[in-house]
Amino acid sequence: MSDQVTMSDIARRASVSRATVSYALNGRPGVSEAVRERILRIAAEIDFHSSVPAKALRGAGTHAIGMTLRRRGAMVTIEAVRRRLISGIQGELAVHGFGLVLQFVDEGAQETEVYRLWRAEGRVDGVIVCDPRIGDPRPTALAEMEMQAVVLGQPEHHEVPPHVWTDPVLASEEVISHLAALGHQHIARIGGPETRSDPFYAIEAFSAVCDRDGITASIVVAARAAREGGRSTRRLLITRPRPTAIVYDSDIMAVAGLGVARELGLRVPADLSILAWDDSVLCALVRPAITALSRDAVSDGGRAVRLLLRGIAGERPAHVEVPVPQLVVRDSTGRLDEAP
User: Fold this and answer.
1) What are phi and psi of 148, to 5 degrees?
2) Between the CA of residue 61 and those of 94, 310, 334, what are the distances in Å?
3) Do residues 162 and 311 make contact, with C-beta atoms less than 8 angstroms apart?
4) CB atoms < 10 A from the CB of 3, how many?
5) At what angle do helices 18-25 and 33-45 cross, to 10 degrees?
6) Quick one: 262 and 118 in the same domain?
7) Are 117 and 183 in the same domain?
8) How far apart are CA 302 and CA 88, in angstroms?
């Protein structure tokens, strides 16, 4: 029977989480003595034998880094930036003899529970945190677990863990400067969700730069998906006065917006300019090809790994600000033939 028994079996019998079972069996703090004794008693009754590698039980390094993603696997295949990021992480880890433990999770507490389980069982030496939220509880939770971590995204108020981030003001200035030079004075931004810190600060910066430069800004908060990009574009383009340029948070949103503009009989860029905040092969393949910000996500992934390994080695690395993405000008942005 012992080969079939798992920690999940003990967790169900003891009415606790699997992470709590792991903490109790491995003698880690954070579990009351009464709960620990109950778990150990159940483990003995059902003849449980831990499958956690001995090196993890001894506290030695696992040479593995963990990362959770809150998106479905299908979304990862679509988002080019995310694919390049993971490629950069894996490439840098391979150089140092580390592996990547990647797990998809639901929104909410499940992600923190996965971190607790990894920490309790010694599965990873540290984690890379993606898609930070406004008021994100994960940095505090990871610090309480004494888990080494690096966050990919805009720092909020946390001193630790270190973040790898891009200044959204500088990126907004590059985009708005390009469109303003072409004569656009009413620019829309479609992006979000606003609960994520990167889109939130990017939209804030975009609005501030437009206001500073005397440009009218229309902000639409929408999920990073083709359907939402298309719907938001349609709403913007049937209003008056409509924007003469639209900036999209992602490549797939921009491609969807291009399709809607065509359906409505608008010429791109003669009637409407379109720009994507994230570049991809899609932007280069559609016609007209879409102007976009091209970020080196592969290098960003490598930077995150090197920063995390420094923390694992006992250093206290600071935040790293990466270069502003390069604006790749293509055919979707240009001067207006006439005012809309």
Assistant:
1) -65, 140
2) 16, 14, 54
3) yes
4) 8
5) 90
6) no
7) no
8) 5
Predicted local confidence at residue 97, as pLDDT? 87
CA nearest neighbour of 330 among 282, 263, 260: 282
**76 token code pair:** 């990862």
| Phi, psi at 326, each rounded to 5° | -85, 135
Q: Is 138 in the same domain as 176?
A: no
Q: How far apart (Å, rounded) are the C-alpha atoms in residues 56 and 64?
A: 11
Alpha-carbon span 310 to 294, nearest angstrom: 28
- For residues 70 and 142, state if they share a domain: yes
The owner of tokens 């030079």 is 181
Which positions ≥6 away from 153 have C-beta within 8 Å? 129, 130, 131, 132, 163, 164, 165, 197, 198
Task: Write the CB contacts of 4 (distance below 8 Å, at least 6 apart in sequence).
Answer: none
Q: Going edge to edge, which strands form the sheet with 148-152?
A: 99-104, 64-69, 126-129, 148-152, 163-165, 320-321
Q: pTM for the full model? A: 0.79
Across 222-251, average pLDDT: 94
In-domain check, residue 326? no
- How many Å apart are CA 66 and CA 118, to the nearest integer? 8
Query: For residue range 247-258, what is the model confidence (pLDDT) as tens digits?
Result: 999 999 999 999
Same domain? For 249 and 264 the reply is yes
Q: Which domain range does residue 30 map to? A: 7-51
Same domain, residue pair 179 and 289 = yes
Q: What stretches of the chain show up as alpha helix (H) in DSSP?
A: 7-14, 18-25, 33-45, 54-57, 73-78, 80-95, 109-121, 138-145, 168-181, 197-212, 226-237, 251-263, 281-285, 297-312
Statement to judge: residues 184 and 262 lie in one domain = yes
What is the four-CA torsion angle of 116, 121, 124, 129, rounded to 10 degrees? -10
Distance CA 289, CA 328 (A): 10
| pLDDT at residue 53 in the model | 43
d(CA 237, CA 266): 9
Alpha-carbon torsion (325, 329, 332, 337), positive or negative = positive
Give 110-119 pLDDT, tens digit per residue.
888 899 999 8
Same domain, 186 and 217: yes
- Tally the domains of the chain: 3
